[in-house]
Amino acid sequence: LIDSGVSAPTADYEVKRAEKDPVFLVAQRLRRDLAKSYWVLGNTRRLEGQRGPAEIPSLDKIEPELFFADFYYANRPVKLTGLVDHWPALELWTLDYLENEVGDAIVELQGQRESNPDYELVKHHHQRQLPLREVIAAIRHYESTNEFYVTAYNDSVNKHSLAPLWDDLGPVSILKPTGGRDGFFWLGPKGTLTPLHHDLTNNLLVQVLGRKRVLMVPPWELGRVRNHQHCFSQVTLPELQAVDRNLQVYECVIGPGEAVFLPIGWWHHVEALDVSISMSFTNFPVENDFTAGHPVDPQG
Asked: Which residues of the chain carry a pLDDT beneath 50?
């Protein structure tokens, strides 16, 4: 204040007045609480670093009790095999099969993604509808692209239009008895990319056709992921890794019949290494709604 031309007595008065202002006192307390939160996250990060390399464990035919105790409630990711070996979809679901069974079905997808770097943030602007056989023709045409993708966001249309496919799914031991029928369908070419974000639920991603690479950043890295709006990062994961070589990143690749558990709050970046069909699920038989209390962006 003095440097800006305010007299010393006036500056002293204003500082003392501010120190007693209720708004200032609340802001001071919030600043202290935020600093303590980052202190906790920072020390969690340090302790995790002493466990060894950042790795996602892989377990075969896991018992539900072990899954929930060691991963779901512990908020830890895990790759799971042997979970859906009984699904007919693993043998049946090819592009030819989908075209023959439901090729005339009108499906919704996200289109024109590559022209907009914020395609995921404003995905409602990218909704398109067309016959599934046209989507399949486009998948066959492109060797690799992120231009279009049938995603979970399109489920309100696709749940009904692709209903004949759900008979090819079966129960999943760690989900509610409805199992596969309560899932979300994903279909796209090699090269589809879901950029770095976190979800407000726990998720199970099951691969049916092709492979996906899943990169995950733990929640204690919150201060490093540049969360700028809702659940999204302001930059891509490769950009983050280029400037922050100490960023903790967990990686796994899932192929047909394999799954990965994505815990709430874990940031993830998912890319298709091949033509890909996946199912994702949130219908665990335990609490899985954590939207309450999540900050709302000023712009809504």
From this structure: 300
Residues 245 and 177 in one domain: yes
Asked if residue 160 belongs to a domain, the reply is yes
- Give residue for tokens 């970046």: 269
Asked, for residue 287, whether it belongs to a domain, the answer is no
- Best CA proximity match to 188, nearest among 133, 148, 152: 148
Distance of alpha carbon 112 from alpha carbon 13, whole angstroms: 59
Dihedral sign for Cα atoms in the order 256, 258, 261, 267: negative
Residue 153 parent element (H or E) = none
Query: For residue 44, which amino acid is it?
Result: T
Torsion of CA 286, 289, 292, 298, to 10 degrees: 160
Look at residue 299 in the predicted model and tell me its pLDDT.
Answer: 56
Distance (Å) of CA 215 to CA 55, 75, 194, 235, 293: 11, 16, 11, 15, 26
Tokens found for residue 46: 């340090």
Beta strands 193-197 and 203-209, pairing class: unpaired
Output the pTM of the full model. 0.89
Do 93 and 121 lie in one domain? The reply is yes
d(CA 190, CA 250): 21
Number of Cβ within a 10 Å radius of residue 32 = 10
Tally Cβ neighbours within 10 Å of residue 169.
Answer: 22
